[in-house]
Amino acid sequence: MQLMKPLWRRISSQLVVSFRSQSRASSTISDPGSSTRTLVSNAEGDWPPRVLITGGLGQLGSNLAKELRKRYGVNNVVLSDIMKPTQKILANGPYAYADVLDVKHLHSLVVNYNIDWVVHFSALLSAIGEKDVTRALKVNIEGYHNIVEVCKSHNLRLFCPSTIGAFGPSSPRNPTPDVTIQRPRTIYGVSKVHVELLGEYYYYKYGVDFRSLRFPGVLSAGAPGGGTTDYAVHIFHDVIRTGEYKCFLREDTRLPMIYLPDCTKATIMALEAHPSVFHPEMRTYNIQGISFTPAELVEEMRKYFPNMKVTYEPDERQAIADTWPEVLDDTNARADWNWSHDYDLPKMVKEIVEKLSKST
Ligand SMILES: NC(=O)c1ccc[n+]([C@@H]2O[C@H](COP(=O)([O-])OP(=O)(O)OC[C@H]3O[C@@H](n4cnc5c(N)ncnc54)[C@H](O)[C@@H]3O)[C@@H](O)[C@H]2O)c1
Question: How far is C-alpha 268 from the chain's CA centre?
């Protein structure tokens, strides 16, 4: 199903973007909970918004916090997790302990920090989730129930990512459209289909401003959180350290991936998009960056590490990867709110190698 948007809607989204650039210029930095922010009233509420990020110490959270703080002011973005933060994280802006299983505490954070938008990142990812299904059910489903209820009570915008793992063996794999069969075989995938459906239900029934993107595997120089696409990050660390890597997927396993700056860019675009740019029947969009196999990644990396040695020993994660899309069809995101990725495989490999070489 191709869900195209009339031209005027796309133009209106560009107008919103330029209006926002002006709004940002007038934002001020304030203490958490204080009323000193400059409020720029528009159709969508006060500007800049105050944002709470849950599960913020994982692979995606601190980069998003950094970019959002540039846009909305340091103290308007509250990072949270159940882990103890580093001194660097504490120095960068507000941080709070927040267990998504503790709904009373979530309410208190939203009230005390005067939160407008929630970015809900807390989750157990695919490989970790399969090892502890009970905990995955608790964090990914019960924790999410708490979050949607809090967003409903306080009228908050909610961004919660979904994943390529929300598709399964009966979904078309290349390309995988936005609207198709979703019968995943992991608890992670099942919980993310639940995220999509419950978010949409709360949107239609209660007007909760729920937005979601199905992210591919996210690549970054920093450590990933236990997913099936993590090989594409581990390989850089191991090759730089030892010259070798043992890959847990077959060399011909094609999966959709995205580089962290592109993932953060997509998140901010979806978070800030004017409500009118979304298709009336879509709250969840596919996002595609680059699809490649381990063999293609190795070929690109050989430009920097000509002697690198890679062996392939597929483990239980291969069975998960075999049920996932090879390429996501993100035509609708590109048409509706002008999504585009900036990094192809060579550009991404070059940047990760440069970053990791500097830090080792
Ligand atoms: N990284 C990827 O490749 C990828 C791909 C698709 C979708 N996503 C989604 O993006 C989001 C962020 O992913 P990530 O890679 O940063 O994950 P991650 O595993 O690196 O981080 C998740 C964070 O959740 C926290 N957490 C666990 N239990 C919690 C609880 N009870 N309360 C609060 N926090 C808790 C963990 O401490 C951790 O810091 C997730 O929802 C994930 O499903 C990630």
Answer: 10
